[in-house]
Amino acid sequence: MTTPAWQPGFQGTFNVAPTFTDPHDASPSAYLALAASTGPNGYVLVNGTGPVIAWQAPADNLLHRVAVFASLVVGTLEVGGQIVLNFTDPSGTARNLNFYSAGQAAGYFAATGGGVPLLITVKAGTTVTLSQGTALTGGAATLWADIWAS
Questions:
Q1: Which of 12, 22, 23, 64 is the most exposed place for a label (fewest CB within 10 A)?
Q2: How far apart, in whole angstroms, are the C-alpha atoms of residue 136 and residue 48?
Q3: Is 8 exposed, middle or buried (0-12, 13-18, 19+ CB in 10 A)?
Q4: Could you tell me which residues are beta bridge partners of residue 65?
Q5: Burial of 85 (0-12, 13-18, 19+ CB in 10 A)
Q6: Digit-coded pLDDT (tens) for 47-78
């Protein structure tokens, strides 16, 4: 008898990549995949506005799941520098959500709490965009972010 991979004492190899033969959900769309990223160097906030990273859901009339992971490191007090998340929700309503407020003090900021939706569902065909919403006119900050989606 072999020891299942989830039991203590398992000595074999365990493949964590989905094989799409799971009897509970054989759909490849059930798994999130990396869709967009700032990469390991991050995005240095600028004296301007515009998209940082974006992903477009397929126009397939299905509901799509999105997870946004982000970290903001502020070197010196920001003047400006708001980060926003834009998408269209399943009801067809365009959303423009404050992800990080402008004017952060020096330090590290995780994208948690404050009602920020890190896990969302979006309408088919919508573009999910993480953007710099206000110019950084003073201070210094770098954003690292990934969008994972199905």
A1: 23
A2: 7
A3: exposed
A4: 121
A5: buried
A6: 999 999 999 999 999 999 999 999 999 999 99
128: nearest Cα among 72, 60, 62, 52: 52
List all residues 6 or more positions away from 97 whose beta carbon is below 8 Å from its beta carbon.
Answer: 84, 85, 86, 116, 117
DSSP string, 125-137: T-EEEEEE-S-EE
Q: What is the pLDDT of residue 59?
A: 94
Gap between the Cα atoms of 32 and 64, Å rounded: 10
Q: How far, CA to CA in Å, does 94 sit from each of 50, 109, 118?
A: 17, 26, 17
Tokens, residue 68: 């946004």
Q: What is the pLDDT of residues 41-54, one digit of tens each?
A: 999 999 999 999 99
- pLDDT band, very low/low/confident/very high, at 119 (cuts 50, 70, 90): confident
Distinct helix (H) and strand (E) counts, the chain: 0, 10
**The dihedral sign for the CA sequence 63, 33, 129, 113:** positive
